[in-house]
Amino acid sequence: MKVLLDACVLYPTVLREILLGVAATGAFRPLWSERILEEWARAARKIGPTGEAQARAEVALARAAWPEAEVRVGAGTQARLWLPDPDDVHVLAAAIDGGADRLVTLNMRDFPKGEVRAEGIEVEPPDALLMELWLRDGAAVEGAVEAVRARAEAMAGEPVAARALLKRVRLPRLGKAVVSA
Question: What angle do CA 18, 24, 25 make, to 5 degrees?
């Protein structure tokens, strides 16, 4: 399964690391465009002057780890599409040109299901995708979550609860499932 990851799920770090950790198990193949990666790097400016530089380093690492993930978006694809937010047309175009089965975003209102489904693609939030993958292979998803939780705990220097961490990055259903398992 090919999954186009919108910039809003690549930044914040915890959400991206969980998604790419699950992708590393072979559960799905991530896709993105150069513009999506640029949006991720620019979004990181919010955390301060070093945020963007760190994000650009993380972008380089993602490109190296997933060399076939970057999709070239055709101008013709973008020209024929309509979405409520014209700035998001490139995201749907990247999903189409990359042959994505899914488009994962936190901005569901900007991607009307009918418009996206007309292109043969399902749009969903990351919590829905990860729950589906957890139901298929709980160990793979839980392993990715635990690796991210452990890194967060090491950085914080204090215990970090998985459920609270997942809730903070808008993965509440996954948080309940992982903790209850």
Answer: 100
Are the beta carbons of 124 and 13 closer than 8 angstroms?
no
Q: 93-106: per-residue pLDDT in tens?
A: 999 999 999 999 99
Our measurement of the distance from residue 137's CA atom to the centroid of its chain's CA atoms, rounded to an integer in Å, reads 19
Instruction: Tell me the C-alpha distance between 164 and 175, whole Å.
Output: 7
Q: How far apart are CA 141 and CA 61, in angstroms?
A: 21
For residues 13 and 43, give the distance between their C-alpha atoms in angstroms, rounded to a whole number: 11
Distance, CA of 93 to CA of 80 (rounded, Å): 9
> Going by C-beta distance under 8 Å and a sequence separation of 6 or more, which residues neighbour residue 76?
none
Phi-psi sector, 48: left (phi>0), alpha (psi -120 to 50), beta? left
Q: Does the pTM exceed 0.90? A: yes
| pLDDT > 70? residue 181 | no
